[in-house]
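Milestone M4 deliverable, item 7.
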Amino acid sequence: VTDSQHLHELDNAIDALSKKFKVIRGKGKGQLNDGQVFGCEFYPAYDIKDEIEAYLFLGQSMFHAAGVAIASNKPTYMLDPYFNEVKEVNSFAEQLKKRSILSIYKALDARKIGIVVGLKEGQLMINRVKDIKAKLEKHKEVSLIALTNVTEDRLQLFDADAFIQIACPRISTDNPFKKPVLSAPQAYALIDLLDGKEVDIDRILGISHWL
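Output delivered:
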C-alpha cells in the first residue's frame, strides 16, 4: 500500500516484490486508487488483512503506515524509497493505540465533556455530533464547541474535563494533549462503557474507516 505521493511508484514496487513474494493489492472501490490509503481511510489495506501476513507501506509517511498497522493489527513495515530503508512500524503504532485507549478510560471520570465540531471543509459532521451528544448526555454534562483548528492552546480556553473532536480522528491518535481528546470511534467506546456494555477495547480502531 502507499499514499497519494508515491502511488505512481506502486506498480514498480509490486513487480520487484513479486519475484520473491506473493503480493496482493487491495481495491480502492472508486473513492481511493487500488493500494492507496488515506489518513482515516484504510479499506484497501483492511479488506485484504485475512489474505496476507504483513503489510509493506511504500513511502516516508509514518502517519499513514501507523494507521494501517493500527487498523489491521498486522505486522507492518515502511519502505522508504529515498533512503532504501525498511522500518518496522508496529512499535510506534502500539504507542499510539495505548495512548488512545488510556484517553478513553481517563474520560470516564470526566464530569464536563466538550464536543468539538470541526469547521474545515469535509469535517462538519453534524449528524455524528448530534448522535454522540444525545447518547453522552445520559451520563455527562456536555457542551458544543466549534473550532477550525483543534490544538492544545485552543482547548485550554474551554471549561471541560475531556473533549471529543469530530474533525479528524488522527488529531486524537497522533497528538499528545493534557486532557483526554477522543475521536468518534473512541467516543462510541466511551459511551458503551458508560452504558455498562462490554467493549473490546483493543479493537476500537481496528476498523477500515475511522470517521
